[in-house]
Amino acid sequence: MKRVLVANRGEIAVRVIRACQGLGIDTVAVFSEADRGALHTLVAGRAVCIGPARAAESYLSIPALLATALGTGCDAIHPGYGFLAENAAFAQACADHGLDFVGPSPEAIRLMGDKLRAREIAVTVGVPVVPGSDGPLHSAAEVSVLAGRIGYPLLLKAAAGGGGRGMRVIPSASELSEGFAGAQAEAHAAFGDGTLYAERFLRRVRHVEIQVLADQMGRCVQLGERDCSVQRRHQKILEEAPSPAVTPELRARMGEAALALIQGIGYENAGTVEFVLDAESGDFYFIEMNTRIQVEHPVTEMLTGIDLVAEQLRIARGEPLRFSQADVRTEGHAIECRINAEAPDQGFRPSPGVVRLWTPPTGDGIRVDSHMVSGASVPPFYDSLLGKLIVHAPDRTAALDRMRRALQEFRVEGVATTIPFHQRILDHPDFVAGRIHTRWVEEDLRPEMGIR
Amino acid sequence: MDLSHEDVQSILKIIDDSLLDELHLEIGDFKLVVRRRAAGAPLATPGPSSSDVGSQGKVSEAAVWPEGGSEPVVSRGASPAATARRDPVRRGGVEVKAPMVGTFYRSPAPGAAPFVEVGSVVDEEDTVCIIEVMKLMNSIRAGCRGQVVEICAENAAMVEFSQVLMVIEPAP
């Protein structure tokens, strides 16, 4: 692997470019006209404008990306997250043109991208899943039969969905027919596939996910969990590890379940197996697998000292994992806050514009992954992530303190940010006590703050 | 005063949507004259130095038969999209810009004569080059009537989206 095209933008493009540089690999950045002059284009060995602002004609254009990779002499493509990262056709197209795709095989992407198939595989390898349908549900009547078996409330999900999109809660039988039609239409509009399935809706659960790595020789390790229970509308806001709700015994069981799943499909490269956890009973259930590097990967890096993106590149160029499960050690506590250009007091309205001032916190145990600099612009065409603030400290209490101080020190002017919202979370007794669940922000925190 | 591409587009749209043939704009020392041309290529002349506004390369539909396939693959002609122009605007010429990233070819086939040379006289609809994107050949049209005064990209080189390929001096 001599030269990698980074098929992404923003902080993850910068992150991947740095990892490549650390391994002595050349980089080619791509950018749309809206991202001219963006940091990822400045730090790469070369940068190529691939299209207009509209993602469909630039970051999502497979022909433009392949033409650029081949035209600049790249031998591999790193997709980052989002855009084409979990697009099996893109991974296949890379392979067809002799380019190494830094990620799993197209087959693995396809298998895990179909949430119903992923669920079936989990059942096959003995990984617990949320009680629910064994296959697609074609009508409200079929859902009704299922409800007779497992009861309400139910959660309708799109088979082609994921990342929290295309889901709908059905609280009772009276709301079934309308909810089913709505979910089907939504799924069809969002994913071009209206196939639905249903699970029992678990109200008070945590979101706990296991990071895995697997090489081409079939050797795999799990790097422990990340707790991503602080969510708003199924979108993660803040992540931490270790989870306040996971005991060493539970951690081992969840790790084994994650490994069973990826071994079951012959998975390769980095991935994340997501579970919901009932903190009281200690029961956990598989929900989905993400076949890419994730936004919150630095949390695991801070805890284990393993550079996940560098490992992705090493795996993609055929190297065996350099450590075994017994070598994986975690130390201390890490927290990540996603700093978005959004106005929390205005319903998290996106706040694009020019970042007049960007002064991130510094110091021991503080890491900022970002593509921002003072004077950079946040175009309205893409996601609102400005960067990620990650802290690491010997224990959770120290990590919370460090995060509070880092947030206090963070200066951003020109756009609204989620920094004040993170400060509220960090000061809240429920969060400090680790007593939260995936609907805590919506059900408890936001009503308290008087914001929708 | 800085004149952004968006400003130019707005001005051109104002005159395009109007029945006017000419627009004079003066803000302090800044003078701008926009004149409608018979060939349809608007010419913007900011004073005191005179320079022209480029036009995005216009693409015609190209049909190619991919290896092993029997159905032609047709690429849809890209409309001249509004793009921020960072390339130096050449004096007295209309820029033909790449409407897509790809490989630039000056001739229709290896060994064939180039579509145009410096000095060639072209019509608006004439093909001046090809951009290949994953084996799909996209014919790029001149976009205005005039004479080719500069060819800015190397044959068989990769060109970026919006890169200047040629400069055409519009016919009066």
Radius of gyration of chain B: 17 Å
Number of domains of chain A: 3
Give the oligomeric state of the chains in this entry, treating copies of one chain as homo and distinct chains as hetero.
heterodimer
- Poorly predicted runs of chain B: 38-58, 60-88
Helix content of chain A: 25-40%
Tally of strands of chain A: 22
CATH class annotation of the largest domain in chain B: Mainly Beta
Q: Which architecture of the largest domain in chain A would the CATH scheme give at its second level?
A: 2-Layer Sandwich
Low-confidence stretches of chain A: none
Separation of termini of chain A? 49 Å
Which outline of chain B best applies? elongated
| Shape designation of chain A | globular
Could you describe the largest sheet of chain A, including whether it forms a barrel? Answer: 8 strands, antiparallel
* CATH class descriptor of the largest domain in chain A: Alpha Beta
> SS-based structural class of chain B?
mainly beta
The CATH fourth-level homologous superfamily of the largest domain in chain B: RNA polymerase II/Efflux pump adaptor protein, barrel-sandwich hybrid domain
In sequence order, what are the helices and strands of chain B, one letter per element? HEEEEEEEEEEEEEEE
Largest interface: A-B, 15 and 17 residues
The amount of beta strand of chain B, in percent, is 35-45%
- The gyration radius over C-alpha positions of chain A equals 21 Å
Descriptive keywords:
heterodimer; A: 452 residues; alpha+beta; Dna Ligase, domain 1; D-amino Acid Aminotransferase, Chain A, domain 1; 3 domains; B: 172 residues; mainly beta; OB fold (Dihydrolipoamide Acetyltransferase, E2P); 2 domains; 5-stranded mixed β-sheet; 5-stranded antiparallel β-sheet; 1 helix
Description:
The complex is a heterodimer of chains A (452) and B (172). Chain A folds into three domains: 3-102, Rossmann fold (3-Layer(aba) Sandwich), CATH 3.40.50; 131-200, Dna Ligase, domain 1 (2-Layer Sandwich); 206-449, D-amino Acid Aminotransferase, Chain A, domain 1 (2-Layer Sandwich), CATH 3.30.470.20. Chain A contains 15 helices and 22 strands. Chain A has helices spanning 10-22, 39-43, 62-71, 88-96, 106-113, 115-124, 140-150, 176-191, 248-264, 297-304, 308-316, 396-409, 419-427, 429-432, 440-449, and strands spanning 3-6, 26-32, 46-51, 76-78, 100-101, 154-162, 165-170, 196-200, 206-214, 220-232, 235-241, 269-278, 283-290, 333-340, 342-343, 349-350, 353-354, 357-359, 366-370, 377-378, 385-393, 411-413. In chain A, the strands form six sheets. Chain A has an eight-stranded antiparallel beta sheet with strand order 13-12-9-10-11-14-21-19, sandwiched between helices. A five-stranded parallel beta sheet of chain A has the order 3-2-1-4-5, with helices on both faces. In chain A, α4 packs antiparallel against α5, α7 crosses α8 and α12 (396-409) packs antiparallel against α13 (419-427). The radius of gyration of chain A is 21 Å and the shape is globular. The N and C termini of chain A lie far apart (49 Å). The mean pLDDT of chain A is 96. Chain B has two domains: 5-47, no CATH class; 55-170, RNA polymerase II/Efflux pump adaptor protein, barrel-sandwich hybrid domain (OB fold (Dihydrolipoamide Acetyltransferase, E2P)), CATH 2.40.50. Chain B has one helix at 5-17; strands at residues 22-27, 30-35, 43-47, 55-56, 58-59, 62-64, 73-75, 94-97, 102-105, 121-122, 127-133, 136-141, 146-151, 158-159, 164-170. In chain B, the strands form four sheets. A five-stranded mixed beta sheet of chain B has the order 4-8-15-13-10, with no helix packed on it. A five-stranded antiparallel beta sheet of chain B has the order 5-12-11-9-14, with no helix packed on it. Chain B is elongated, with a radius of gyration of 17 Å. Classes of the chains: A alpha+beta (452), B mainly beta (172). The interface between A and B is medium-sized, with 15 and 17 residues.
